[in-house]
Amino acid sequence: MIPGMHNELCSLLHELTSIPGISGHEDQIARTLAAQLRLYSDEVTIDALGNVIARRGSGTGRKIAICAHIDTVGLMIKRKIAEGMFGVTRIGGVNLKAMPGTRVIVGEQAGVIGVRSQHQAQANDAAVTSDEDLHVLVAADAEIEITTPVHYAPQFTELSDNMLVSPYLDNRAGCAVLLETARRLPESSPQTVYFIGTTQEETTCAGAMSVLQRVQPDACLFVDGTVSYDTPDTRGKGSVALGQGPVLTSFLYVSGLNGWHADPLLRSYLKQVAIEAGIEYQQDAIHGLMSDSRVAGWLGLSSAIIGVPMRGKHSAAEVCNLNDLEQAIKLLLAVLSTPLPTLQRG
Asked: What backbone torsions phi and psi does residue 222 show, to the nearest 5 degrees?
């Protein structure tokens, strides 16, 4: 990666990961995203759900939406246990086993998730399975209201030239890709592009549902964190690894009717563009992961995911590789530089 680009992406991620925004409480990150997108867009608005919608182009003709969710997982104060000690409820799929001892911010107050002393260890200490197993500690005189949001404290660390560790890389990495694509996109584009920061992805997907229903793009590309299989506990379960390029996902599934399929024509087009431009990419089909992309299916819209592989998702120590972000940006720029093909099936 070019050193200047490395520094710009690092600085941008450092800024974005420090801004709170648990699902349903995205106002601060929405304002930041909107302010930066105004530098590169013809029109930027924030709607009633907090979605950021930036339009580049006339709004007529064929339309592409590039979406990245701006909310994060977190906690919310549920009950008071004692002075300076509170019970919590989860907002989104918090990584419970990684929570004890984690530094957090409770509203504006510094705090920590309580952890049992090793001298009082019990056999099931590693089995954090529910909200009831967690409690938050803050200053005894802190005034904390029930329903106060709790988010991970900023802990941005650069491990090497390309490897980063931080809370909320899911999906502030996607937001960084969105912003850098908007910044580098040439003035003239063969279609109208909507850069959209969606809200509530970690809980309801209501943000994406609302904004995509209104915009009605011809194609939706979702930039989001995805899983990797390059740690001792995940090797052999898939082929995705950090540093090998973005992931063109074909299938997501959680349970019941909660699933999503990529439009095969759109995904094939992304692969064709990547190959022609010499851009690295990976592929995956995943059980146990979901995305805003599911609402595109509900709305009958063509969609594909450009995933940023990560380790430790939904913990305070998510890990990503800047090369994957850079390749995702290059892929989006290549896609946006030529007219979108007709995605007619049948």
From this structure: -105, 125
Residues 327-338 have pLDDT tens digits of: 999 999 999 999
Last residue of a domain, one of 124, 152, 180: 152
- Do 69 and 76 contact (CB within 8 A), yes or no? no
State how far the Cα of 321 lies from the Cα of 3, in Å rounded to an integer. 14
Q: Helices 27-37 and 169-184, interaxial angle, to 10°?
A: 20
Q: What range does the domain containing 85 cover?
A: 74-152
Rounded Cα gap, residues 169 and 252, in angstroms: 20
Structural contact between residues 71 and 21, judged by C-beta atoms closer than 8 angstroms: yes
Which residues pair with residue 104 across a beta bridge? 111, 152
- Cα–Cα distance, 165 to 320 (Å, whole number): 7
Q: For residue 114, give every residue at least 6 positions away whose Cβ sits within 8 Å of its Cβ, in sequence order, or none.
A: 85, 100, 134, 135, 136, 137
The reported pTM is 0.95
User: Which pLDDT tens digit goes with each residue over 293-306?
Assistant: 999 999 999 999 99
> What are the Cα distances from residue 123, in Å, to 95, 119, 135, 288?
20, 12, 19, 28
If asked whether residues 203 and 251 sit together in one domain, one would say: yes
Calpha distance 346→336 (Å, rounded): 25
Is residue 115 predicted with pLDDT exceeding 90?
no
Three-class SS state of 81: strand
End position of a domain, from candidates 152, 178, 211: 152
Mean pLDDT of 281-295: 96
Beta bridge partners of 166: 318
Residue 1 in this model has a pLDDT that exceeds 50? no
